Amino acid sequence: MNNIALATIPSSDQTTLYISAWAEHTIEQLKLKHIQFFMLIKDRAILSVFESMMKKHSPSLVFINGHGGSDLVCGHKDEELIKVGKNESLLKSTITYALSCSSAKELGPSAVKAGAVAYIGYVEDFIFFISPDKRTRPREDKTAEMFLAPANHVIVSLVKGHTVLEATNASKNYFLKNIQKLISSESSVDEREYLRYLIWDMRNLISLGDQKATVI
Amino acid sequence: METEKEIIDLVIARLQNLPFDKEISIGSSGEFTKEELIEHVKNDDSIGQKMVAIEMDFLRSMKEGVFYE
């Protein structure tokens, strides 16, 4: 492991704007002593740049943000980034976390088969709520935070040196903490309606490959 | 058939309880208000079916006691 991380931060619609704002925020908040983080922001989150950075730096951690499907993840403006049967070997020797819909269904297993150390992602759509009045300031959106803070916790945990399994469980525990907050008296009746969606995200997060692997 | 209708009615009833001032982001399908989601459920399209799947998963998770893990 070489202590280099690479993140894709596309931003071409409301959903990618939100997940990218929170990913960037998470990375900025990390006290990065042991790992160098490269971020491919907006129109740099495309295949040609991603490929070139992967070859140049051989990151041990890859953090994908963007739309996806069971067999692919996308970059800026939904440009295909990694697809089953095409270039999943790009993830060879990496621990990859994809905050992207459904990619742990087919791309995850295929990447691990092609040499990825581990792949953490979602087997179904990643769903979250937003407050439309915070559209231009996603980091201030407390509703979105309920979903995006636990989702980004995978990266926080991996960078702290926890194993793939520990990082996945730490994220699930964060979701669970938010779920328990909602069923307590602290939350409003309205907020309790988010429960089923937090549970959905928590249950669909999985890790594949070497569960004992660490980034640092 | 009756059960299917009951499930649809349940999902619509739950969606009606969503806050009026929030939107839900469902990956590349986009963002939806609760009224739009209810229409999708009534139309039984892929977004509507996703809402049904989420409700069914929620009911299963309650049975499994996921809140108290």
- Write down the overall mean pLDDT of chain A: 95
Radius of gyration of chain A: 16 Å
Q: What's the number of extended β-strand segments of chain A?
A: 10
Summarize the amount of helix of chain A as a percent range: 25-40%
Runs of chain B with pLDDT <50, length 5+?
A: none
Count of individual helical segments of chain B = 3
What's the end-to-end separation of chain A, in Å?
A: 6 Å
Overall shape of chain A: it is globular
- Lateral strand order in the biggest sheet of chain B: 1-2
Instruction: List the uncertain runs of chain A.
Output: none
DSSP helical segment count of chain A: 7
Work out the oligomeric state of the chains in this entry.
Answer: heterodimer
| Strand count of chain B | 2
Describe this structure in a few short sentences.
The complex is a heterodimer of chains A (216) and B (69). Chain A has 216 residues and is α/β, with parallel strands linked by helices.
Describe what this molecule looks like in 3D.
With 216 residues, chain A is of the alpha/beta class. Chain A has a single domain (4-209), classed as Rossmann fold (3-Layer(aba) Sandwich), CATH 3.40.50. Chain A is built from seven helices and ten strands. The relative contact order of chain A is 0.16. With 69 residues, chain B is mostly helical. Chain B has one domain. Chain B has three helices and two strands; from the N terminus they run H-E-E-H-H. In chain B, strands 1-2 form a two-stranded antiparallel sheet. The termini of chain B are far apart. The model of chain B has no long low-confidence stretch (mean pLDDT 92). Chains A and B meet through helix 1, strand 4, strand 9, helix 5 and helix 6 of A and strand 1 and helix 3 of B.
